[in-house]
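Cast an eye over this sequence plus C-alpha coordinates and explain the fold to me:
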Amino acid sequence: MENKKNILTTSNLSIGYHSKGKSKVIAAKLNLKLSSGNLIALVGANGIGKSTLLRTLTAIQKPLSGQVILNQREIIQYEMAELAQNLSLVLTERLPPSNLTVFELVALGRQPYTNWLGKLSQEDYSKINQAIALTHIDHLLDKKHYEISDGQLQIVLIARALTQDTPLIILDEPTTHLDLLHKVSVFKLLKKLSKETGKCILFSTHDIDLAIQLSDEMIVMTAENVWQDEPCNLITKGVFTSLFNDDSITFDNEKGKFIISS
Protein backbone atom coordinates (compact mmCIF):
# COMPACT_ATOMS: atom_id res chain seq x y z
CA MET A 1 0.00 0.00 0.00
CA GLU A 2 1.36 3.43 -0.92
CA ASN A 3 2.71 5.61 1.87
CA LYS A 4 0.48 8.66 2.19
CA LYS A 5 1.63 11.78 3.99
CA ASN A 6 -0.73 13.67 6.29
CA ILE A 7 -0.87 17.22 4.91
CA LEU A 8 -3.51 18.63 7.26
CA THR A 9 -4.80 17.21 10.54
CA THR A 10 -7.09 18.53 13.23
CA SER A 11 -6.68 17.84 16.92
CA ASN A 12 -9.84 17.97 19.08
CA LEU A 13 -11.09 20.79 16.87
CA SER A 14 -14.30 22.58 17.83
CA ILE A 15 -15.84 24.84 15.20
CA GLY A 16 -18.54 27.49 15.46
CA TYR A 17 -18.85 31.19 16.12
CA HIS A 18 -19.34 33.77 18.83
CA SER A 19 -22.67 35.58 19.06
CA LYS A 20 -23.85 37.99 21.77
CA GLY A 21 -21.01 36.99 24.07
CA LYS A 22 -21.75 33.27 23.75
CA SER A 23 -20.08 30.52 21.76
CA LYS A 24 -22.24 28.56 19.32
CA VAL A 25 -20.60 25.15 18.80
CA ILE A 26 -21.39 23.55 15.43
CA ALA A 27 -19.14 20.48 15.75
CA ALA A 28 -16.70 19.42 18.46
CA LYS A 29 -13.67 17.18 19.00
CA LEU A 30 -12.94 16.72 15.31
CA ASN A 31 -9.84 14.66 14.53
CA LEU A 32 -9.59 14.71 10.74
CA LYS A 33 -6.72 13.68 8.45
CA LEU A 34 -6.23 14.98 4.91
CA SER A 35 -3.56 12.89 3.20
CA SER A 36 -1.57 13.24 -0.03
CA GLY A 37 -3.09 11.78 -3.21
CA ASN A 38 -6.59 11.59 -1.74
CA LEU A 39 -9.81 13.05 -3.13
CA ILE A 40 -12.04 13.79 -0.13
CA ALA A 41 -15.67 14.94 -0.32
CA LEU A 42 -17.30 16.94 2.48
CA VAL A 43 -21.07 16.36 2.60
CA GLY A 44 -24.01 17.13 4.85
CA ALA A 45 -27.43 18.76 4.84
CA ASN A 46 -27.79 22.50 4.24
CA GLY A 47 -26.86 24.58 7.27
CA ILE A 48 -25.05 21.73 9.00
CA GLY A 49 -21.73 23.63 9.12
CA LYS A 50 -19.73 22.57 6.04
CA SER A 51 -18.78 26.17 5.20
CA THR A 52 -17.79 26.85 8.82
CA LEU A 53 -15.54 23.79 8.75
CA LEU A 54 -13.92 24.87 5.47
CA ARG A 55 -13.39 28.42 6.77
CA THR A 56 -11.75 27.02 9.91
CA LEU A 57 -9.53 24.60 7.97
CA THR A 58 -8.31 27.45 5.75
CA ALA A 59 -7.67 29.92 8.63
CA ILE A 60 -10.39 32.31 7.46
CA GLN A 61 -12.13 31.65 10.78
CA LYS A 62 -10.56 30.82 14.15
CA PRO A 63 -11.47 27.56 15.87
CA LEU A 64 -13.39 27.71 19.13
CA SER A 65 -10.82 25.27 20.51
CA GLY A 66 -8.37 22.65 19.33
CA GLN A 67 -5.87 22.87 16.50
CA VAL A 68 -5.56 22.78 12.72
CA ILE A 69 -2.09 21.49 11.79
CA LEU A 70 -0.85 22.11 8.24
CA ASN A 71 2.45 20.45 7.31
CA GLN A 72 3.42 19.95 10.96
CA ARG A 73 2.68 23.56 11.95
CA GLU A 74 -0.39 25.11 13.50
CA ILE A 75 -2.18 26.97 10.72
CA ILE A 76 -2.57 30.19 12.72
CA GLN A 77 1.25 30.50 12.79
CA TYR A 78 1.47 31.00 9.01
CA GLU A 79 1.90 34.41 7.41
CA MET A 80 -0.61 34.98 4.58
CA ALA A 81 1.96 34.64 1.76
CA GLU A 82 3.39 31.46 3.30
CA LEU A 83 -0.07 29.98 3.79
CA ALA A 84 -0.80 30.61 0.10
CA GLN A 85 2.20 28.42 -0.76
CA ASN A 86 0.78 25.54 1.27
CA LEU A 87 -2.96 25.72 0.64
CA SER A 88 -5.05 26.92 -2.29
CA LEU A 89 -8.75 27.70 -2.13
CA VAL A 90 -11.33 27.64 -4.94
CA LEU A 91 -14.56 29.45 -4.07
CA THR A 92 -17.87 29.51 -5.95
CA GLU A 93 -18.25 33.31 -5.87
CA ARG A 94 -18.52 35.17 -9.13
CA LEU A 95 -15.27 36.78 -10.25
CA PRO A 96 -15.08 40.58 -9.97
CA PRO A 97 -15.45 42.47 -13.28
CA SER A 98 -12.21 42.48 -15.26
CA ASN A 99 -10.82 41.93 -18.74
CA LEU A 100 -8.51 39.10 -17.73
CA THR A 101 -7.95 36.38 -20.28
CA VAL A 102 -8.09 32.75 -19.21
CA PHE A 103 -4.28 32.59 -19.38
CA GLU A 104 -3.94 35.65 -17.14
CA LEU A 105 -6.45 34.22 -14.67
CA VAL A 106 -4.53 30.94 -14.45
CA ALA A 107 -1.24 32.87 -14.08
CA LEU A 108 -2.62 34.64 -10.99
CA GLY A 109 -1.98 31.37 -9.17
CA ARG A 110 1.72 32.32 -9.12
CA GLN A 111 1.13 35.49 -7.06
CA PRO A 112 2.41 33.94 -3.80
CA TYR A 113 5.79 33.36 -5.50
CA THR A 114 6.34 36.39 -7.76
CA ASN A 115 8.26 39.51 -6.76
CA TRP A 116 6.48 42.79 -6.01
CA LEU A 117 6.41 43.60 -9.73
CA GLY A 118 4.50 40.40 -10.39
CA LYS A 119 7.05 39.39 -13.03
CA LEU A 120 6.79 35.72 -14.00
CA SER A 121 9.97 33.62 -13.94
CA GLN A 122 10.76 30.61 -16.10
CA GLU A 123 9.63 28.37 -13.23
CA ASP A 124 6.35 30.30 -12.98
CA TYR A 125 5.68 29.72 -16.69
CA SER A 126 6.56 26.05 -16.25
CA LYS A 127 3.97 25.66 -13.44
CA ILE A 128 1.35 27.54 -15.47
CA ASN A 129 1.94 25.35 -18.52
CA GLN A 130 1.78 22.17 -16.42
CA ALA A 131 -1.60 23.23 -15.00
CA ILE A 132 -2.93 24.07 -18.47
CA ALA A 133 -1.80 20.66 -19.78
CA LEU A 134 -3.31 18.77 -16.82
CA THR A 135 -6.70 20.48 -17.22
CA HIS A 136 -6.75 20.54 -21.06
CA ILE A 137 -7.75 24.22 -21.38
CA ASP A 138 -5.29 25.21 -24.16
CA HIS A 139 -8.19 26.14 -26.46
CA LEU A 140 -9.54 28.68 -23.95
CA LEU A 141 -6.39 30.64 -23.14
CA ASP A 142 -7.06 33.70 -25.34
CA LYS A 143 -10.71 34.07 -24.33
CA LYS A 144 -11.83 36.57 -21.69
CA HIS A 145 -12.91 34.77 -18.52
CA TYR A 146 -16.50 36.07 -18.93
CA GLU A 147 -16.74 34.57 -22.44
CA ILE A 148 -16.58 30.95 -21.25
CA SER A 149 -19.27 28.74 -19.69
CA ASP A 150 -19.66 28.12 -15.95
CA GLY A 151 -18.32 24.60 -16.40
CA GLN A 152 -15.27 25.84 -18.29
CA LEU A 153 -14.66 28.58 -15.70
CA GLN A 154 -14.69 26.01 -12.90
CA ILE A 155 -11.96 24.03 -14.70
CA VAL A 156 -9.98 27.27 -15.22
CA LEU A 157 -10.19 28.07 -11.49
CA ILE A 158 -8.94 24.55 -10.73
CA ALA A 159 -6.05 25.21 -13.13
CA ARG A 160 -5.28 28.43 -11.22
CA ALA A 161 -5.17 26.43 -7.96
CA LEU A 162 -2.81 23.90 -9.60
CA THR A 163 -0.59 26.76 -10.75
CA GLN A 164 -0.36 27.85 -7.11
CA ASP A 165 1.33 24.47 -6.57
CA THR A 166 0.21 23.73 -3.02
CA PRO A 167 0.05 20.24 -1.45
CA LEU A 168 -3.59 20.87 -0.48
CA ILE A 169 -6.43 22.24 -2.64
CA ILE A 170 -9.79 23.00 -1.01
CA LEU A 171 -12.88 23.71 -3.14
CA ASP A 172 -16.23 25.03 -1.92
CA GLU A 173 -19.01 23.37 -3.94
CA PRO A 174 -17.21 23.30 -7.31
CA THR A 175 -20.18 21.69 -9.12
CA THR A 176 -22.85 24.24 -8.14
CA HIS A 177 -24.72 25.62 -11.21
CA LEU A 178 -23.38 22.81 -13.44
CA ASP A 179 -25.44 20.23 -15.33
CA LEU A 180 -24.84 16.51 -14.72
CA LEU A 181 -22.34 16.11 -17.58
CA HIS A 182 -20.17 18.98 -16.29
CA LYS A 183 -20.52 17.83 -12.67
CA VAL A 184 -19.15 14.42 -13.65
CA SER A 185 -16.31 15.94 -15.68
CA VAL A 186 -15.25 18.15 -12.73
CA PHE A 187 -15.38 15.17 -10.33
CA LYS A 188 -13.35 13.00 -12.70
CA LEU A 189 -10.81 15.78 -13.24
CA LEU A 190 -10.35 16.21 -9.47
CA LYS A 191 -9.90 12.44 -9.09
CA LYS A 192 -7.31 12.38 -11.89
CA LEU A 193 -5.43 15.37 -10.45
CA SER A 194 -5.21 13.90 -6.95
CA LYS A 195 -3.70 10.72 -8.40
CA GLU A 196 -1.36 12.33 -10.97
CA THR A 197 -0.06 15.17 -8.78
CA GLY A 198 -0.16 13.52 -5.34
CA LYS A 199 -1.98 16.56 -3.96
CA CYS A 200 -4.77 16.21 -1.45
CA ILE A 201 -8.04 17.66 -2.75
CA LEU A 202 -10.93 18.38 -0.37
CA PHE A 203 -14.23 19.63 -1.79
CA SER A 204 -17.68 20.27 -0.37
CA THR A 205 -20.62 19.12 -2.44
CA HIS A 206 -24.36 18.44 -2.48
CA ASP A 207 -23.87 15.76 -5.14
CA ILE A 208 -23.60 12.95 -2.62
CA ASP A 209 -24.33 10.04 -5.00
CA LEU A 210 -21.48 11.15 -7.30
CA ALA A 211 -19.16 11.74 -4.36
CA ILE A 212 -19.79 8.20 -3.10
CA GLN A 213 -18.79 6.81 -6.51
CA LEU A 214 -15.67 8.92 -7.11
CA SER A 215 -14.15 9.96 -3.76
CA ASP A 216 -11.37 8.12 -1.93
CA GLU A 217 -12.76 9.29 1.40
CA MET A 218 -15.70 11.35 2.63
CA ILE A 219 -16.28 13.58 5.63
CA VAL A 220 -19.97 13.34 6.54
CA MET A 221 -21.47 15.97 8.85
CA THR A 222 -24.74 15.37 10.69
CA ALA A 223 -26.24 17.12 13.73
CA GLU A 224 -24.98 14.29 15.97
CA ASN A 225 -21.57 13.44 14.58
CA VAL A 226 -18.85 13.92 11.97
CA TRP A 227 -17.42 10.82 10.26
CA GLN A 228 -14.40 10.43 7.99
CA ASP A 229 -13.88 7.16 6.13
CA GLU A 230 -13.94 5.47 2.73
CA PRO A 231 -17.43 5.58 1.12
CA CYS A 232 -17.87 1.77 1.29
CA ASN A 233 -17.17 1.78 5.04
CA LEU A 234 -19.56 4.68 5.61
CA ILE A 235 -22.28 2.74 3.76
CA THR A 236 -21.61 -0.37 5.88
CA LYS A 237 -21.86 1.72 9.07
CA GLY A 238 -25.20 3.14 7.93
CA VAL A 239 -23.95 6.72 8.13
CA PHE A 240 -25.88 7.95 5.08
CA THR A 241 -29.23 6.80 6.49
CA SER A 242 -28.98 9.55 9.13
CA LEU A 243 -27.98 12.31 6.73
CA PHE A 244 -31.43 13.77 6.06
CA ASN A 245 -34.23 13.98 8.60
CA ASP A 246 -36.94 13.23 6.05
CA ASP A 247 -38.94 10.02 5.62
CA SER A 248 -39.23 10.53 1.85
CA ILE A 249 -35.44 10.28 1.38
CA THR A 250 -33.86 6.94 2.26
CA PHE A 251 -30.45 5.47 1.53
CA ASP A 252 -30.27 2.05 -0.10
CA ASN A 253 -27.13 0.41 1.35
CA GLU A 254 -27.07 -2.33 -1.30
CA LYS A 255 -27.33 0.04 -4.27
CA GLY A 256 -25.19 2.70 -2.55
CA LYS A 257 -27.50 5.59 -3.42
CA PHE A 258 -30.43 7.64 -2.21
CA ILE A 259 -33.99 6.64 -3.06
CA ILE A 260 -36.82 9.19 -3.22
CA SER A 261 -40.27 7.88 -2.26
CA SER A 262 -43.39 9.60 -3.59
User: Anything to note?
Assistant: The CA atoms of residues 10 and 31 lie 5 Å apart. The chain has eight helices and 13 strands.
